[in-house]
Automatic annotation (TrEMBL):
Protein's recorded name: Agmatine deiminase
Pfam families linked: PAD_porph
Enzyme nomenclature, EC number: 3.5.3.12
Alphabetized GO MF terms: agmatine deiminase activity; protein-arginine deiminase activity
PANTHER family, alphabetized: AGMATINE DEIMINASE-RELATED
Record key words, sorted: Hydrolase
Species this chain originates from: Stackebrandtia nassauensis (strain DSM 44728 / CIP 108903 / NRRL B-16338 / NBRC 102104 / LLR-40K-21)
GO biological process: putrescine biosynthetic process
Length: 364
């Protein structure tokens, strides 16, 4: 009997899970063996995304759904995409995204799968998913369904769940796959997520959960956006030892964001990674000529997503900046095709391509 696309995806996920993982712990306290979160350029089995709801986006829903469908179609040119949608939205989401995107009925509130989904880690037992106990970015938004997304994805894929002893989101961490993790204090060392926990407490949990030995903290910004300033809009590893940073335009006025960049840049210029080496910083300038945007608009090219043989990056309409960003990213990822997509709807919601995606890495 011919295997359907859905059956093929399930088989791939089951293979990635590596069968029963007797040594991973689970709901009662986390892993009992060493796990490692690979960098995003590690080969993927597939990408997870979520279909936005009118409840959250209201009059902006059509534009945002167009963005999500465009991103899903772009990624599907490189690897399988599994998109979560409420049962009532499955038909519409399938029509918008096309036959190459597999839409499955898992309840969602919003589209930010980077934050709501599991963070997949590899180990001798195969693969497991870290559930960072999403709480609506510190209870800023009611997301009853999204709080269960990580658990639902892992159950659907038959992957072991590691319940983290801390609260956070996938966008709050960035790893090089070789023992180094970047994070903002404003997001994780925050009473709206981890009351009573010190930075040292949280760092110890991050090291254990993601198999890192070095955590580099930047200060970030509390209370100015819903995420309390995620690292994935500021700085990313393009490879071990190389950090690409979102750089404000030289004409941008001094504000909390430019000051946060200055503080982070000073830290990263002096930082040493897990291998004992200083970091190379590559600047990725932000666009400037993008017209009238809302105060929460995220104009960061750094919020790109690495896929198998490609990189999907934003396009903001500043022709020179868009072209420069594509060229810089192409140099950072030689041999990968760089594809630009419009994300104006997502940008108005304070997010981007990376925020809307979560990878399932290959386990071998």
């Amino acid at each position: 009997m011919r295997m359907s696309r859905r059956d093929g995806l399930r088989a791939a996920m089951a293979a990635a899970a590596g069968g029963a993982l007797s040594g991973c712990g689970g709901d009662d306290g986390g892993p009992t063996e060493k796990w490692r979160m690979p960098d995003e350029a590690h080969p993927h089995e597939l990408t997870y995304m979520s279909w936005p709801t009118e409840k959250i986006w209201g009059p902006y829903i059509d534009d945002v759904r167009d963005d999500i469908a465009g991103i899903a179609r772009a990624i599907a040119e490189f690897e399988p995409v599994v998109l979560l949608a409420n049962a009532s939205d499955v038909k519409a989401a399938s029509k918008a995204c096309g036959s190459e995107v597999d839409v499955i009925p898992i309840p969602v509130d919003d589209l930010w799968t980077r934050d709501t989904g599991p963070n997949l880690v590899l180990g001798k037992g195969g693969i497991a998913g870290v559930d960072l106990n999403f709480n609506g970015w510190g209870d800023k938004q009611s997301n009853k369904r999204d709080r269960e997304v990580a658990r639902e994805i892992l159950a659907e894929a038959d992957i072991e769940r590691i319940k983290a002893p801390i609260v956070g989101e996938g966008g709050s961490i960035e790893v090089d796959g070789k023992g180094t993790l970047l994070a903002t204090e404003s997001s994780l060392v925050n009473d709206n997520r981890n009351p009573g926990k010190s930075r040292d407490d949280i760092e110890a949990a991050l090291k254990r959960l993601f198999g890192v030995t070095t955590v580099i903290w930047v200060k970030g910004v509390k209370g100015e956006d819903i995420t309390d300033y995620h690292i994935d809009a500021l700085a990313r590893f393009s490879e071990p030892g190389v950090v690409v940073m979102s750089v404000p335009d030289e004409e941008a006025p001094e504000d909390v964001w430019t000051r946060a960049y200055d503080q982070a840049r000073a830290v990263l210029d002096e930082a040493v990674d897990a291998r004992g080496k200083r970091l190379e910083i590559v600047e990725l300038p932000e666009p400037f000529d993008i017209g009238d945007r809302g105060e929460n608009f995220l104009a960061s090219y750094v919020n790109y997503y690495v896929v198998n043989d490609g990189v999907v990056i934003p396009r903001f309409g500043d022709k020179r900046a868009d072209a420069d960003a594509k060229s810089i990213v192409a140099d950072l990822y030689p041999g990968r095709e760089v594809v630009q997509v419009s994300v104006d709807g997502l940008g108005e919601g304070g997010g981007g391509i990376h925020c809307a995606t979560q990878q399932l890495p290959k386990s071998a």
